[in-house]
Design brief:
The complex is a heterodimer of chains A (470) and B (151). Chain A has 470 residues and is mainly beta. Chain A contains four helices and 26 strands. The chains are: A mainly beta (470), B mainly alpha (151). At the A-B interface, loops of A face loops of B.
Chain lengths: 470, 151
């Protein structure tokens, strides 16, 4: 009997040891991965064109219903369907630009405004529910999360009538400034809808939104959409702040300090994680359930955050106290500030890692767009991300041999990366626009962007167009 | 004698032009920053090939360098099209530095090389200016201004 207990204890210890060695958060800024590392198992990759002609593509989602369809959001407010054959359906799947008799429902005045994302309900095949996130014109740029339902008789097109008839507004979050909305929405492996919300804009987070728990800005939100039609959504009971603001009798004695610290009056129970600046793209690894968040940085550092599948939420990613593993505002070597909350696993700099610092030659950018988690061609839970400005493609992954996270610049392309996701076959997809701040002529006027599939370079189909780069 | 003096003056002018040309010109840099392939620069419909542009395409010599009016025009164009990414002093911000020696693309150092990048685009957000409302002649003025930023 005793032997069994010892054996069991050993087994448990072994599991714990394996788990702790498996992957862990950096314990200090020095452990945060930077470009220059080597992510194990990443082959030479190529971006293979799937389809083009999209007007400012901003998001992409695979149908995952066996149809092979891929949905691409266009900033103006349209969702395009790319068929299994790579052909783009001429009529949009969903069009937010013309159901409102007074004009478009989508605010696109600034390049960060528009329709950003479409998420399909985990039971989409049965219930036809799709969810979109966009900046509203009638609500002065407020960000809207709205559900529409596909008429099964018209699976590739939600008509104007069907759109109006089936609409259910889940959230209407006012936006004070025209930037840092966040954008992506997606369902986690738990069936809950996650919403990336930026810090509401300007620069330097003047509202201190990232750290304030009573606002939705600067957060990753998590809601339960499976409610009655007259209930917008429900707060999952296991959200980290689900009960932090519950009405209760005050008790001063017999409560631990830990207990008191759980009381956060005014906090929003929808919050899953906070201290984010602009989590435009984030992705769950379908294999492990882990979550990666690409948090767009300000002037000096772009960061990749990671949550193991077992996370209970409540992580504070430090903005605006920290940018990446650095102080904010950063002054460079020797700066001193507390590291608030959880460190990113990886970060890459802008041209200058701090004001007046040495100019980076490689491995820099200005706006990180997460693309998706790759589990193919030798890659094991490798998070791919592209930079909107420099066109660089980065990989972030765990190096079991070195017991640390690694970040590697894979190539620099001609693309302004905007978004990505994983397709039905598990390949990471990416979209690019030609809509940079300085050249934005409007979402219907900018030169078209494209949809790409990231494949091993030696598996590129004959005759396929490959993105320029090295 | 007067004739000889004239010849000497002409020769000196030609020689100095060649020196200037040598500083900014390398027609072999009319190439793609992606793969080094030779580039052509077709004009847009209705776009005029100015004498300065014509000369530039043959010799790589940008006659707008040091031309006060052209540099002034170039500054205005730079402020409209380039400054947001490359900074007012060319030190770079979202885009790479245009001054110094350590360029993202070594061909930036020569006027033809910089012209090829402006015209045809490079990586990331540096999309081709041939697709925007900027003429090739204006690109030369922009370059002439950028070169004045070199301290």
């Amino acid at each position: 009997m005793k032997v069994y207990v010892i054996a069991a204890t050993l087994a448990v210890s072994a599991i714990v040891a394996t788990t702790s060695i498996a992957q862990q958060l950096p314990a200090s800024p020095a452990e945060v991965a930077k470009p220059g590392g080597k992510v194990p198992g990443v082959p030479k990759l190529a971006l293979v064109k799937v389809a083009d002609g999209f007007r400012d593509p901003t998001g992409v989602t695979a149908a995952n219903d066996g149809s092979g369809r891929i949905f691409v959001t266009e900033r103006a407010g349209r969702v395009r369907i790319v068929g299994k054959d790579g052909k783009v359906q001429p009529e949009p799947f969903l069009d937010l630009t013309n159901f409102n008799p007074l004009g478009s429902d989508v605010q696109t005045g600034f390049v960060e405004q528009g329709l950003w994302s479409i998420a399909l309900h985990p039971k989409f095949k049965e219930n036809g529910h799709v969810f979109v996130h966009y900046a509203s014109l009638p609500f002065n740029g407020a960000s809207m999360v709205v559900r529409f339902t596909v008429d099964q008789a018209s699976p590739n097109r939600i008509t104007k009538e069907q759109l109006v008839k089936s609409s259910k507004v889940l959230m209407n979050i006012p936006q004070p400034y025209y930037n840092h909305y966040g954008g992506m929405i997606t369902f986690g492996p738990d069936g809950k809808l996650y919403i990336g919300k930026g810090d509401a804009g300007w620069e330097g987070d003047p509202l201190d939104a990232g750290q304030r728990l009573e606002v939705f800005w600067g957060k990753l939100l998590r809601i339960d959409v499976d409610t009655a039609d007259d209930v917008a959504y429900a707060v999952p009971k296991d959200n980290p702040f689900a009960k932090a603001d519950k009405p209760q009798l005050m008790s001063l004695f017999g409560i631990t300090e830990q207990g008191f610290s759980q009381i956060k009056i005014g906090s929003r129970p929808e919050i899953w994680a906070y201290g984010l600046r602009n989590p435009y793209m984030f992705h769950f690894d379908k294999k492990s359930g882990d979550l990666f968040i690409a948090d767009v940085g300000q002037n000096h550092w772009e960061e990749i955050n990671w949550q193991p599948a077992a996370s209970k939420g409540g992580e504070n990613y430090g903005w605006k106290h920290n940018q990446g593993s650095h102080c904010h505002p950063t002054t460079g070597p020797g700066e001193k500030c507390p590291i608030v909350g959880v460190l990113p696993i990886a970060e890459y700099p802008h041209q200058e890692p701090y004001p007046g610092g040495p100019k980076s030659k490689d491995g820099w950018g200005c706006s990180v767009q997460g693309l998706g988690v790759a589990n193919y061609a030798g890659m094991d839970k490798v998070y791919l991300a592209g930079d909107w400005c420099s066109g660089r493609l980065f990989a972030t992954g765990w190096d079991a041999g070195e017991k640390k996270w690694q970040m590697q610049e894979l190539m620099q392309t001609s693309l302004q990366f905007t978004s990505g996701n994983v397709d039905e076959e598990g390949f990471v997809l990416a979209t690019n626009c030609v809509c940079f701040y300085t050249e934005d002529k409007g979402p219907n006027t900018n030169p078209p962007g494209a949809l790409w599939r990231i494949m091993p370079a030696d598996k590129v189909p004959a005759g396929a167009e490959v993105a320029k780069g090295n | 004698m007067p004739g000889q003096r004239l010849s000497a003056t002409v020769a000196a002018c030609v020689f100095s032009t060649m020196l200037v040309a040598a500083a900014g010109a390398s027609v072999s840099d009319f190439k793609s920053p992606f793969d080094g392939s030779k580039m052509d620069f077709p004009l847009k419909p209705g776009e005029v090939e100015t004498p300065v542009l014509k000369e530039f395409k043959v010799t790589g010599n940008n006659q707008y360098r040091g031309d006060t009016k052209a540099v002034k025009d170039g500054k205005e164009l730079y402020e409209t099209w380039c400054q947001a990414c490359h900074n007012a002093d060319g030190s770079g911000r979202m885009g790479p530095a245009l001054i110094g020696k350590d360029f993202s693309y070594p061909q930036t150092a020569s006027d033809p090389g910089m012209f090829a990048i402006i015209y045809g685009g490079a990586k990331g957000a540096m999309q081709p200016f041939s697709a925007r409302e900027v003429t090739q002649d204006e690109m030369l003025k922009i370059i002439a201004f950028v070169r004045t930023l070199e301290k």
